Amino acid sequence: MWGNLEMLHSQNSLVQSSNYYQRPVGEANKQAGLHQQDDYRLIIVLEPVQTLRKHFVELAHKSFTWPVQIFEASVSADVTGLSTRKTPALVVIDVNSSDRRGISTAGEIWAKYPDAKILFWCSSFKEAYYQQIQLMAPPQGIFGIVLKSCPDERLMHAIQSLVVHENTFIDSDVRRSLHEEPAANGKLTRSEYETLCDVMLGLTDKAIAKRRNLSARGVQNRLAALFSKVLRGKHSWLRESASMDVYNLRTRLIFEVLRRGLIDSESLALLDDELDTWITEQFGV
Prior knowledge:
13 helices
């Protein structure tokens, strides 16, 4: 169902506004009055705070010389339910949205529009968000991350970087918040991240092997990579110095993930739901 969505045209075209009332999503494209020409850029703004949403719209208009059509939404359902044949030029998502579905909304948008550029606009940013964004982005995916505290000039630069220059943009403040992240060779691959999620959910090596279609050796190799990248080799030199195993590596891995926020509680809840579905399909329980 549609919530309260507003349509605004740029200053280069006739300025008009129309409210979208409760109606089935399937009728939205027919009744919403979308531009019938292709001489405009479609921008979607998901931001629960109206004043911030309006401020972003103003900056978006200043960032382009061509006509734009902007849809404003306060909840994720209004965005994921949007039906349009035109790939959005830019989708702006508040990661810390009130319904706490910012990241998953981005995944749904990319599944529908792989070429869409997504700008994550957030009050605060966690390492967990960065990992999830990198892993869910399609191969051609272009995204940006900026804090709401950044200057307007930087936000406009981020918008132009994504839409005009088609470059990924990471706010310098966000980069600093990720300064503890290891170098490129310490980044987790998609398969390693999947195994990390399985460990966080409490699966045994045999269960991980069955779920991911791996051999026992394959699971051990992934775990070894996780211990090296996430624990950063601390366990190895500590074992040599103490002449004994000081850490239970699996438990320490979970501790480090929670400490650094690589996977947050909200993500774990969604992962657990997926696991329940897999268990039901595999074992009928």
